[in-house]
Amino acid sequence: MIVPYTHVMLLGAIVFLMGMICTLTRRNLIMIIVGLEIMLNAAAIVFVGAGLQFQQIEGQVMALFIVAVAAAEVSVGLAMVVCIYRQRHSIDPQCIENSPRVPDPKAASEPLTLNP
Amino acid sequence: MTVYAVFFYIIAALIIASAGLAITRKHMVHAVLYLVVSFIATALLFYLLGAPLVGIFQVILYAGAIMVLFLFIVMMIRMAPGADRPFPAGHFIAAFGVCGVYIAAALVLAFFSGPEAGRPMAAAAASPAAFGFYLFDQHWLAVEMISILLLVALIGALHLGRAGRRKQSGNKEP
Fold first, then answer.
1. Smallest Cβ distance to B57: which of A17, A59, A67?
2. In order along chain A (116 residues), what is the average pLDDT of each group of 10 residues?
3. Residues facing residue B120 across a β-bridge
């Protein structure tokens, strides 16, 4: 016998909340991605706990998919952070707004035509 | 209180403490290392909750591959120390107010949800073989979609890396 189901849910809620606080209050793109990771992790905890409570293996399958989606999300997210850092030499989210080199969404896709 | 419950509370305290340390560190390398501790503790929790294969994948993928990627990027990016701007106090009050309501609602739900929810869960474990058979028997389409998603993410990351370099070299020229 393990602990009651609600304790697993509470653990997931607390960890999710920590990730949300990190995402909302940090002014650093990498720490924002860290917060997203913590939130995904909390979702996986809740899925596995629910799978045990209802004696279904689906919860574990979903936890595995969450890990895979997190891997894809982190790879693209960190590539974007590196891209922003190369252009602005900062990873503060505000730098995108304040910088003179604000990339127009249309201009960013065809940078070669803009250069004289 | 059984030995499983003792293990659960120890692991839960470890997860919460290391995640809390991770989100408050100023230095990004410290934050990522605390996050590794948090993810390994989560893998132990998965093992305890009867998901050994998911726990192993958590260690290999999350605590291994993803966190090493984080460390690489953090070491690539040179950030000026103390560059983190302080968050406005008014926003903090609003954020923690919302969080407090959320926690209070969760606690109320937890303690007034009847005797059914207070009963401890039965311990059970899905063997890796059974899990694998179920995954590829019932969810083969989702597995294929995940593989395509990972391929798209790979191509996207490659494109973003190349686009950043091309733009930088293009800006240097004039």
1. A67
2. 82 91 86 93 93 88 92 92 83 72 50 48
3. A4
The CATH number covering residue A56 comes to 1.10.287.3510
Total domains in the fold of chain A: 1
Chosen for mutation from B18, B62, B71, B107 (greatest number of chain A CBs closer than 10 Å) is B62
The radius of gyration of chain A from alpha carbons, rounded to an integer in Å, stands at 19
Range of the domain at A55: 5-105
Give the global pTM. 0.83
Residue A114 resides in a domain: no
Range in B13-17, B98-102, B109-113, B166-170 with the lowest mean pLDDT: B166-170
Average pLDDT of the segment spanning B27-35: 91
d(CA A30, CA B76): 12
Q: Inter-chain contact A13–B103, Cβ cutoff 8 Å?
A: yes
- Is A113 part of a structural domain of the chain? no
Q: Quote the CA–CA distance of A25 and A58 in Å, as a whole number.
A: 34
